[in-house]
Amino acid sequence: MSDARPPAHFRVLAPAVLFAALLAVAPAWAPCSAQGAPPAAAPDAARIEQALRALRAGKEIDSSLALLRDTIERSGDPGTLARQIGVVLLTDGRYAMAADFLAVARARLPQDGNVALQLGKAQALLRRFDEAVASLTAADALLPPGPHPIVKQFLATSLAGQQRFDDALRMALLARSEAETFNANLPPGRPPLELADFEFTRANVLHIAVRFDDALAVLAQLELEPLDAADRAKAALLRAKILDARGDDAGALGAYAAARAAAPDDVEACYENASFLVRRAKHAEATALLQQVVARDPQHEGAWFNLARTLPRSGDAAGGKAALARYQEIHDQKLKDDERLTELRRVLAAKQ
Amino acid sequence: MIPGHATASVTLVLVGWVGRAAPSAGPAAVQARSTGVPPPVAAQTPAVPAGAPRGVWYEAPRPDDPQFPLVCGRPRDQLQWLIEINGSGVALIDHDRDGDLDLFFPMGRDPWSDPPRGSDRLLRNRGDGTFEDVTAASGVGDEAWSFGCAVGDYDSDGFDDLFICNWGPDRLLRNKGDGTFEDVSTQAGIADDDWSTCAAFADLDQDGDLDLYVARYFHFDLAKPPNSGKPCKFGAIEAPCGPQWEPAVHDLLWRNDGNGRFTDVSVESGIRAVRASYGFGVTVLDIDDDGRLDLFVGNDSLPNFLFHNLGGMKFAEIGVMSGVSANIDGEDQACMGVDAADYDDDGREDLFVSNFSSDYNTLYRNDGGLLFDDVTRSMALAEASWWTLGWGTKLFDADCDGDLDLAVANGHVYPHPERGSGMTFAQLNHLYLQRDGRFDFATADAGPGFALVRSSRGLATGDLNGDGWLDLVVSELEGPPSILRAVPQPGVHRLLVELQPGADRRTVEHAEVTVKATIGGAARVQRRRANRAGSYASSCDPRIQFGLGDANAVTELIVHWPDGSEQGFGELPVDRRVVIRRGEKSPRLEALR
């Protein structure tokens, strides 16, 4: 499930309904501080992650919120806590919320290059490119001297998003070069960086710059190398999107199929293929793929949303209704989660 | 340790948002983002310069156009509240029935200035390209804080009336037929003290008179401002707090009782059987071609509504089910403006919404069966709108080639977004021309009218000078309105169809007209609705323009009247204003200027 949606109008603000939610959970929170419990141990990322996952699953909501709130109340280091929560959310694909928490962390830990990097990533993934470039540039300056290929990689894509294509291409090449430097001086026990990832970034920058032929050439060169299945899928999916953007429907369809064949369990390739088919009114084919998506990821909001309309057009009105109900259930839960997390962020931001 | 090594691949997540429009979108978008200060207004361009691209060309505003500033609260550097940043719209209304469209500007208010500024304005079209301010003489200079307005002949007396959406009591102004208006809000029973943004007149119960839908925002109280009066932070930017600080209020549906009074039927009609939302745009369409008019409401930050008309003034909200509540991934967007029209000429009306910045404007294709698909990416519309904050919008045939194009008025709500991002308060408005089944970004090639960089809000299309080309009027925040006149292109034909009620005076609003012609060697069928509603806070030309390209004649014209009857006409010449009075056998033809 992805909540990589762009920020809606003032979405970051707490909606009024939030206050009702707050009141509802207040009794569960109150005892934590009222009991005068001893100071908690240092913030525990695993506990935070467990609590956040419980929230997502709609289970143990009160106790999860209580745990998070309690941790915030007792933590003497709200910046670190905000970072931990932000990183968990980022890994979980909840980019908007991650960015909110990481922004709190960034304000609290202005010299922490890692926080700047994580915030920059979240902003880039949200396509808030201006903010991403600012955060990533700060990260590059704050991190210890040495190669920062991941920073450069995200910077390259963010610069492309800003339509600074020459800068973006230079940054993509620099990212690759720094990755090679990093691999040549690999710390013990660390796996090398996959250089293919940096070529994907370069192809992507060219794609965003609408240099479709150049982007496809990078992919073709890359595909001559022995790629693993995941990278083959990645290359095929990128090729599909380039061909889609170029208006080559037949080519895009073939590339989407190749992406799915290379990584049959990859939800994103399947969903993107389905989305392409929906836009071309191929509803029966889209339905089959969307059903595969929800079989693998029952929380996939976009897949349920589309199934609610493709199923009736494939003759399954009841299935459409069920999909609609499922979408609404997931969507409502997400909104509730966001409201709760927003309040947590506010508490965290206000903590002295 | 290498920072960030373990996180997800950026490559897969970020690809795919760019499309074919980007090459031409690039420089314009960059200009829009990097231009904090509006450039000088370009010199008037009386004709398309030699060598300019064929297709469409809009003049810059003329020096003798209205120069009064459109007020909406305090100046940019002093504004504090959301109510000061949403701006207001514009209505095109032939209030004196002289055949020319006049301009009405609902205007906000600045009660903090001494003396307070801002009152609604009416400008009469003299017919020679100039306008005169008749506000005082006409009696429309309401000093309430206005946002949007709807135009319609609610009392079927042959003269268009005005409904004005206010923060505070709304106003219904009856056109007395002598160039003046009277405030009949109290007599009509239109009572609403909350914050209305947009409205649409439509005969929703098919009784022959115009009912009224009013979209509303939230309850705003200056004495109890959101966030205790403090500005909100959006990243590094400080700006007025958004709507979600206050509970939304439900929209209203007023049934015209036919005796000069309206009754609130919001509850029994089903309009209130939804979560209250932040309504911003409303338009009228018939999604299933059943002859009953449906309503689409764009909401800010929350799911959009699609009210399916079940007959008998009953509605079912089917936005989520039909796929227009959110984008293709089921994610809510922050809608500002809306429009409905059959962009792909498949006989079904589609929907377009303009959205907040860092998001794309969305095109929903009507696939029948009450189901829509978000086809924004396929139509190459996603990327160019990413950096802009869209407001007023209209699907119309800008280049008169027979298919619908698209205009979007843009401008940010943050007073200084550039302090935290590369976006700017003032932005380019966008024009997209439909070519080869996609919308091409054509702003850069559309003349000096589309080179203006302002913080635009409302947008209305209409033929201001009787040449059959649709001009644009754009309302601005902190500036005079922009009148963008289309420059006729040689050898390009068109038709302007005006529908008039018959002897029974039943409304002809939202009637449809089908025109058949051979354009570019291909038989084309265009079906368009007389629809003033849509855009943001605005009201457009009620006449229907048909672009005919190189067609030498219209082979057939059919009017689909709101009562279900049809009236057909055989071959008609092009470049004519066609006036069709319901029930009369022959249309009146007048040469376009």
What are the SSEs and their pairings?
The complex is a heterodimer of chains A (352) and B (593).
Chain A: H1 16-34, H2 45-57, H3 61-74, H4 78-91, H5 95-108, H6 113-125, H7 129-142, H8 149-161, H9 165-184, H10 195-208, H11 212-223, H12 229-246, H13 249-262, H14 267-279, H15 283-296, H16 301-313, H17 317-350
Helix pairs in contact in A: 1-3, 1-17, 2-3, 2-4, 3-17, 4-5, 4-6, 5-6, 5-17, 6-7, 6-8, 7-8, 8-9, 8-10, 9-10, 10-11, 10-12, 11-12, 12-13, 13-14, 14-15, 14-16, 15-16, 16-17
Chain B: H1 10-14, H2 22-34, E1 91-93, E2 102-105, E3 121-125, E4 131-133, H3 135-138, E5 145-152, E6 161-167, E7 171-175, E8 181-183, H4 185-188, E9 196-202, E10 211-216, E11 232-234, E12 237-239, E13 252-256, E14 262-264, H5 266-269, E15 279-285, E16 294-299, E17 305-311, E18 314-317, H6 319-322, E19 335-341, E20 350-355, E21 362-366, E22 372-374, E23 390-396, E24 405-410, E25 427-428, E26 430-435, E27 438-441, E28 453-454, E29 456-462, E30 471-476, E31 482-484, E32 493-500, E33 512-519, E34 522-529, E35 544-549, E36 553-560, E37 566-569, E38 572-573, E39 576-581, E40 588-591
Parallel strand pairs in B: 32-39
Antiparallel strand pairs in B: 1-2, 2-3, 3-4, 5-6, 6-7, 7-8, 9-10, 10-13, 11-12, 13-14, 15-16, 16-17, 17-18, 19-20, 20-21, 21-22, 23-24, 24-26, 25-28, 26-27, 29-30, 30-31, 32-35, 33-34, 33-36, 36-37, 36-38, 39-40
